[in-house]
Amino acid sequence: MSALYSIAEIRQIEHAAKAELPSYTLMQRAGEACARQALSLVAGDDDIHVLILAGPGNNGGDALEAAHYLSQFELHVAVALHADESKQPEDARKALQRARESEVEFLDVADAAHLTRQRWTLVIDGLFGIGQTRPIGGKLRACVDYVNTLRCPVLAIDIASGLSANTGAIIGGAGCVAVRATHTLSFIGDKPGMHTCDGQDFSGNVTVDNLDIEEKHFSAPRAQLNELALFASALKPRAGNTHKGSYGDVIVVGGAHGMGGAPVLAARMAAHAGSGRVFIAFVDDAPAYDSVHPELMMRQADRVEFGAASVVVGPGLGTSRHAHDVLTRALDAHGPVVIDADALNMIAAEPGLQHKLQNRAHHASIITPHPLEAARLLDATTAEIQNDRPQAARLLARHFKSIAILKGAGTVIAFPDGDIVINTTGNPALSTAGTGDVLSGLCGALLAQGWPATQTALAAVWMHGKAADQLVDLGVGPIGLTASEVIPAVRTLLNQIIRDHA
Ligand SMILES: NC(=O)C1=CN([C@@H]2O[C@H](COP(=O)(O)OP(=O)(O)OC[C@H]3O[C@@H](n4cnc5c(N)ncnc54)[C@H](O)[C@@H]3O)[C@@H](O)[C@H]2O)[C@@H](O)CC1
Ligand SMILES: [K+]
């Protein structure tokens, strides 16, 4: 399991471990691990110049300790120290002393040209770690801006400075800066902020070193990375003696005037992901059939009984009176419901619909908002949602008693008990119209086939992203991938993982 720990949890683990170890042990381990990774990043280069940025706290201490280790090798180590020595924590002060006694050049940070004189082979970012509390400003900002122009590898210690380890947002928000690392060596445990929002862009390749802290100090995590193992129990080969009734019905509700494509995408995905029968309930006039996929059944929404079918409500639904009435019926239905797009907007606008959703507690409900829809549901701004995506997803799940899939870079799947899973598949090729409809249709299909809601949400998000990754590998995207192309790729992937893992 790939556990993710919040800053508070990391502090607790660190505190417990430190109580049983001689002081300074963890920083020595951290510095040595960092130096080892640095050496592997410059292996093969000659005339190596390593720039180490060391900040005022223990993150800077790790950097200084790394400087000491690296100075024992055939390379030039330069340290830019941004710390008031009288205020350094004890371990960091010790590390500074060791670095001063080593073959390390200390740059004069008062001289504006101290960084630019040299062509750097590698930069190590030890400005701030999990203790950063305010945006990077002043001279340090210029330093970060400079590092971000370099082409060489940039190794962040613990977390890229400027990035929040809890949220993946840049500390201070729009207009503020963070180090754009190519590699991050994170200590004790992995952290949510490296995998959602700006986390992937600024962390680069993430590795975790647990600093040999004993297992007993690690608490049960409330967050983890999504992976196949989390939903493998739901992957089942088909039995021979089955028929279409064995694989459930999906009813996609939507398709107001001018938005008929959205439910068609969801429905096509539902059919390609194995649902026995797929219907589209149009709130406005239904077309006779889908000429590409005539197996889909088109109906007028007011004539459709939901029964125990899996209902996907929202794609292209609009917010008309009629749409509202159909949504009300869908929320009263006894089967699993996936709620997307305009259905979420109507729920956000009306407490009565919110109560209906909250009262569905013993039927599965999955909501799939993007950040703007999440903002409407939580009466917040999109910036506030993006500033703490894990927390926003948790609030959605708890408040609406549903599984919440907060879409975007590093999709967060949250459960009503407060646990979250952050997805690792997917790429910007998915930033195009219709991919959300495909995701909701995929959820609907898995639910219709009897998958539990938890595994459904995890698998749907993982496969949707993975299929897009595979398409990009083939050159189909990231530019110009269409939602329709994701559909057959998901089908291939689902069949493959059932074959390989069921
Ligand atoms: N304490 C320990 O035992 C260990 C600590 N570790 C390292 O220590 C880090 C955490 O250390 P700290 O808690 O000292 O925190 P940091 O080193 O992340 O930074 C805290 C310091 O930065 C200052 N600061 C915060 N934001 C600032 C800003 N925008 N501009 C200027 N100054 C700012 C704070 O006043 C404080 O002095 C971890 O990320 C990790 O790298 C590791 O060595 C593992 C063991
Ligand atoms: K750092």
Automatic annotation (TrEMBL):
Catalytic activity: (6R)-NADHX = (6S)-NADHX; (6R)-NADPHX = (6S)-NADPHX; (6S)-NADHX + ADP = AMP + phosphate + NADH + H(+); (6S)-NADPHX + ADP = AMP + phosphate + NADPH + H(+)
Keyword Protein transport tagged: no
Taxonomy, superkingdom: Bacteria
Residues given in the record as AMP binding sites: K407, G408, A409, G410, T411, G436
GO molecular function, a single term: kinase activity
EC number: 4.2.1.136, 5.1.99.6
Keyword Isomerase attached: yes
TM region positions: none
YjeF N-terminal domain mapped to chain residues: 10-219
Listed Pfam families: Carb_kinase (PF01256), YjeF_N (PF03853)
Binding-site residues for K(+), renumbered to this chain: N59, D125, S161
Keywords for the protein's UniProt record, in alphabetical order: ATP-binding, Isomerase, Kinase, Lyase, Metal-binding, Multifunctional enzyme, NAD, NADP, Nucleotide-binding, Potassium, Transferase
Required co-factors: Mg(2+); K(+)
YjeF C-terminal domain span: 227-497
The record's free-text note on cofactor binding: Binds 1 potassium ion per subunit.
SUPFAM superfamilies: Ribokinase-like (SSF53613), YjeF N-terminal domain-like (SSF64153)
Amino-acid positions noted as binding (6S)-NADPHX in the UniProt annotation, renumbered to this chain: 58-62, 129-135, 158, 262, 316, 370, 437
Alphabetized CDD domains for the sequence: YXKO-related
Function description: Bifunctional enzyme that catalyzes the epimerization of the S- and R-forms of NAD(P)HX and the dehydration of the S-form of NAD(P)HX at the expense of ADP, which is converted to AMP. This allows the repair of both epimers of NAD(P)HX, a damaged form of NAD(P)H that is a result of enzymatic or heat-dependent hydration. Catalyzes the epimerization of the S- and R-forms of NAD(P)HX, a damaged form of NAD(P)H that is a result of enzymatic or heat-dependent hydration. This is a prerequisite for the S-specific NAD(P)H-hydrate dehydratase to allow the repair of both epimers of NAD(P)HX.
Subunit-structure text: Homotetramer.
Entries under PANTHER family matching the protein: ATP-DEPENDENT (S)-NAD(P)H-HYDRATE DEHYDRATASE, ATP-DEPENDENT (S)-NAD(P)H-HYDRATE DEHYDRATASE FAMILY MEMBER
Protein family membership: In the C-terminal section; belongs to the NnrD/CARKD family.
Protein known as: Bifunctional NAD(P)H-hydrate repair enzyme
Species assigned in the record: Herbaspirillum hiltneri N3
